[in-house]
Amino acid sequence: MALSVLVNATLCSAEPNAAAGKAFAQANCSHCHSIDKFTLSALAIAPPFRTLHLRYPVESLEEALGEGLSTGHANMPEFRLDPGQVGDFISFLKSLEP
C-alpha cells in the first residue's frame, strides 16, 4: 500500500510535459484540428488549437478533459484523460499561445 501511495504522489507531482500533450494531440486530434501555430484545420468546423485561448482560458478545459470531453456533433469522439494527460495536454495548448 505504501508503494501505491508513493507512485501516485510521484505521478501527481510530475511537471506537465507539453511534448507528451502534443503527442496525444497528434494521435487523437490532428486529423480534424490544426495542432500547430500555422496550418488550417483539416476539418473546417474544427477550431485550430492555437485559437482556443481566444475563446476561453485553456485551463478551464481541465475538468472536462478529466471527466470526458465531448461535443454536440457526432464526428468527435469522447475523450477522458487521466490527471497526468490533462496536465500535459493543457501545457501543450498553452505552448501554442503567443
Question: Could you give a quick summary of the protein structure above?
Answer:
47% of the residues lie in helices and 0% in strands. It has helices at 2-13, 18-28, 52-55, 62-67, 83-95.
Distance between the termini: 44 Å
Shape: globular
Reading the helices and strands in chain order gives: HHHHH
Query: Would you report the number of β strands?
Result: 0
How would you name the oligomeric state of the polypeptide chains in this document? single chain
Poorly predicted tracts of residues = 1-10
Structural class: mainly alpha
Proportion of strand residues: under 5%
Largest sheet: none
Helix content: 40-55%
Q: If helices are DSSP runs of H or I spanning 4 or more residues, what is the number of helices?
A: 5
Radius of gyration equals 15 Å
Mean pLDDT figure: 83
Report on the structure:
With 98 residues, the chain is an all-alpha fold. The chain has helices spanning 2-13, 18-28, 52-55, 62-67, 83-95. It is 47% helix and 0% strand. α2 packs across α5 (83-95). 16% of the residues are buried.
Using brief descriptors, characterize the structure shown.
mainly alpha, disordered N terminus, 98 residues, single chain
Outline the fold blueprint.
Blueprint: H1 2-13, H2 18-28, H3 52-55, H4 62-67, H5 83-95
Helix pairs in contact: 2-5
